[in-house]
Design a protein that fits this description.
The chain is of the alpha/beta class. It contains 6 helices and 12 strands.
């Protein structure tokens, strides 16, 4: 798997990462969601450099110019609920792209095969498409693998691009071992490890709860 960790170079993304990790700033849900969206924009920009561009003739008020634009457009997939603000940032930069949605929630029984259960799919045809999956926290990697397995019933994509705010080494390894299709990862940071409840350490806690409040 090709991995792009943008924290290897200092950028404005460091500010957004610092704020979403900070327990004092996390009390402001609006700011937490906004920073997730900002990181979606930053990662979408970085990922866009890997896409195909074609020349397009553009008429200006004064003349005309050949401009390179993204073609074909990717298909954006959001893993809800924590992924919604993050996805919003990605979609801000890919406003012409089709989108799909996957509903997921953490299983209460940690003995299950997957820490996250999938419950909802609304997905267009993925055949030969460039698939961009946004999931803010790449922890065990099992939910991403399960999601991709289900998405393949909607067609086999040309390649898969995965965007994550924070990733764990265990999740990256699991995806590498279980996904055979071409896949690349863009992430804001790769943290130290997972704890016994499959939360990323140091991480930031439960992104869904911080964005929207605790769930039953």
């Amino acid at each position: 798997m090709e991995i792009h960790n943008i924290s290897r170079e200092n950028s404005i993304a460091n500010n957004f990462l610092a704020e979403i990790r900070d327990v004092d700033v996390q009390n402001d849900r609006l700011r937490f969601r906004k920073n997730l969206s900002r990181l979606g924009e930053v990662l979408a920009y970085e990922m866009s450099k890997s896409l195909e561009f074609k020349r397009k003739a553009v008429k200006t008020p004064l003349s005309s110019i050949d401009q390179y634009v993204i073609d074909p457009q990717p298909i954006l997939i959001s893993i809800m609920r924590a992924g919604m603000p993050f996805f919003e940032g990605v979609q801000n930069f890919f406003d012409h792209a089709d989108a799909g949605f996957v509903g997921a929630f953490r299983a209460h029984d940690f003995s299950t095969t997957s820490m996250v259960e999938l419950s909802y799919f609304a997905v267009p045809d993925l055949t030969d498409k460039i698939l961009v999956i946004s999931d803010p926290m790449l922890a065990t990697g099992k939910s991403v693998v399960d999601t991709i397995g289900q998405l393949l019933t909607y067609g086999t994509p040309q390649k898969i691009l995965l965007l994550a705010v924070i990733a764990a080494p265990e999740g990256i390894k699991y995806i590498e071992e279980n996904i055979q299709l071409p896949i690349s990862l863009w992430c804001g940071a790769i943290d130290e490890k997972l704890n016994d409840k499959a939360y990323i350490v140091p991480g930031l806690g439960d992104a869904g709860d911080l964005a929207y409040g605790p769930k039953l």
